[in-house]
Design a protein that fits this description.
- This protein is α+β, with helices and mostly antiparallel strands.
- It folds into three domains: 4-87, Uridine Diphospho-n-acetylenolpyruvylglucosamine Reductase, domain 2, CATH 3.30.43.10; 94-204 and 426-440, 2-Layer Sandwich (Uridine Diphospho-n-acetylenolpyruvylglucosamine Reductase, domain 3); 207-414, Vanillyl-alcohol Oxidase, Chain A, domain 3.
- Helix content is 25%, strand content 23%.
- The protein contains 14 helices and 19 strands.
- The chain has helices spanning 4-14, 27-31, 51-64, 111-118, 135-140, 148-151, 179-185, 223-230, 273-280, 303-306, 327-336, 386-398, 418-422, 429-440; strands spanning 19-20, 44-47, 68-71, 84-87, 94-97, 102-106, 158-164, 170-173, 194-201, 207-216, 238-246, 261-269, 289-292, 295-298, 315-322, 346-351, 373-380, 404-406, 446-447.
- The strands form three sheets. Strands 10, 11, 12, 13, 14, 15, 16, 17 and 18 form a nine-stranded antiparallel beta sheet that branches.
- A hairpin with a 4-residue loop joins strand 5 and strand 6.
- Helix 1 (4-14) packs antiparallel against helix 3 (51-64).
- The protein is globular and about 65 Å long.
- The two termini are 25 Å apart.
- It holds the Pfam family FAD_binding_4.
């Protein structure tokens, strides 16, 4: 599709939303987002403000055979479109029903929007480590969040999706109405349509005990294995993770961090604060603590636990879910994030189990719920470094081949081929998702974050 004028004119005639093309004001900002690697370069952008805008755009794309993609915050974008981009970042409405403990979340709302709406009622969503992530896109990938070991995944708490399927139909999808689409949308990665809103359950959490402990890896070289041993017998109320990276030797960074490999142990305990303190205390024996932010805090302040960067940047990342962690593999993972690494690499471990492993109410497409840990790698990258970074990531994750179960969609920041996509699902579920996708989008018009699931 090279003739952009008729599409722009039709979109303007059928919606109230701004319609942008290359060279018009706001186009670049609308195509941007948090991920700066491989930006969208669409012939037309629809900056949707309501669900009807989305329906009209998808319907026009379907009629014309124009490929399209949807973007809210752009954190997980890896497969850009050159056709139509539907931007939902203006659709940020959140409505909380405190009596029912539910929230209605529009397509472009971030977890920050949802947390702020729920907190006055003593409630919380199953949000992730970074409040700026889009709530809907996060949930479509499963949603491994701060309270996961106690309450499960974000997708487990969805009651209803409003979605526009690639044929332009607006559908209300629940467990009992359109059960196949409901299954696919809960953890399947968003391959079956553009979600305009979702109803989610909230949990009664107003405060947590959480934060981070920082260790100099040179003073505590077995820090990852020490964390592994600590996680072997923890209650579901405690969800934790650890990351290791080597900070650059730059002015402005605190002296304990400059030029050093540092381990950040992140903890969220949703029980009594005293119980959280007691459970975390053994970590302090790992080595000298060079930073400590552990405290009882409002759920509004949980973004400070991981304290992830707000500034958009280009990056690549991958992961593997494992049944256990071998100490020798952990030593190799630590080295991959050390000062000798040729590019900055952040390696991470997340503790699974607890409620994650329990069968949720209503079916979901999420795979590998029986995994014990998730191992992740992420690097900032420019175009020329792409292949080298991929090689380094493959080598780091290859240390865990013997224990590998597959990957997790939410922590995969690169395009996946069909075999790699298959690895994110239980046996048979990838074929089920393919079948649903082929039926709902036979022309393969919808471009999703990790690439399509149709075709081999």
């Amino acid at each position: 599709m090279t003739d952009r004028t008729p599409l722009r004119a039709d979109l303007s005639a059928h919606t109230r939303a701004p319609v942008l093309t290359p060279g018009t004001g706001g186009y670049d900002a609308e195509c941007g987002g948090y991920q700066l690697l491989d930006p969208h370069t669409p012939i037309t952008v629809l900056a949707a403000t309501r669900a009807e805008d989305v329906r009209a755009a998808v319907s026009l794309a379907a009629t014309r055979g124009v490929p399209f993609a949807v973007q809210a915050t752009g954190h997980g974008r890896v497969t850009p479109t050159t056709g139509l981009l539907i931007s939902t970042r203006r659709m940020t409405g959140v409505r909380v029903d405190p009596a029912a403990r539910t929230a209605w979340v529009e397509a472009g709302a971030t977890w920050r929007h949802v947390v702020e709406a729920a907190a006055p009622h003593g409630l919380a969503p199953l949000s992730g480590s970074f409040p700026g992530v889009g709530a809907v896109s996060y949930t479509l990938g499963g949603g491994l969040g701060l309270l996961a070991r106690r309450y499960g995944l974000a997708c487990d708490h969805v009651r209803r999706f409003d979605v526009v399927t690639p044929d332009g139909r607006a559908r209300q999808v629940t467990e009992h109405r359109e059960p196949e689409l409901f299954w696919a949308l809960r953890g399947g990665g968003g391959h079956v349509g553009v979600v305009t809103g979702m109803e989610i359950g909230l949990v009664p959490v107003a405060h947590v005990y959480g934060g981070s402990l920082l260790f100099d890896v040179e003073q505590a070289p077995d820090v990852l294995d020490a964390w592994r041993r600590w996680t072997s017998d923890l209650p579901g109320e405690l969800t934790s993770a650890v990351t290791v990276l080597t900070y650059p030797d730059l002015p402005g960074l605190p002296d304990p961090l400059r030029g050093r490999p540092v381990a950040h142990m992140r903890v969220v305990h949703c029980g009594k604060a005293d119980e959280g303190r007691e459970l975390v205390e053994p970590l302090r024996a790992i080595g000298p603590v060079i930073g400590d932010t552990l405290a009882e805090r409002s759920y509004l302040d949980t973004g400070a636990v991981f304290d992830e960067p707000e500034q958009p940047h280009p990056y690549l990342g991958d992961n593997v879910v494992v049944r256990d962690l071998d100490p020798q593999a952990l030593a190799g993972l630590t080295k991959a994030a050390g000062p000798s690494a040729p590019v900055l690499t952040v390696v991470g471990l997340r503790h699974l189990g607890g409620a994650i492993a329990e069968a949720p109410r209503g079916a979901s497409a999420v795979g590998h719920r029986d995994g014990a840990y998730l191992v992740s790698v992420l690097s900032p990258v420019e175009g020329a470094e792409r292949e080298r970074v991929r090689g380094l990531h493959d080598a780091a994750l290859g240390l865990f081949t013997d224990a590998a179960l597959g990957r997790w969609l939410n922590f995969t920041f690169r395009a996946l081929n069909p075999a790699e996509m298959r690895s994110a699902f239980a046996p048979g579920d990838y074929e089920r998702l393919r079948r649903i996708t082929d039926e709902i989008d036979p022309g393969g018009l919808l471009h999703t974050g990790h690439g399509g699931v149709s075709g081999e």
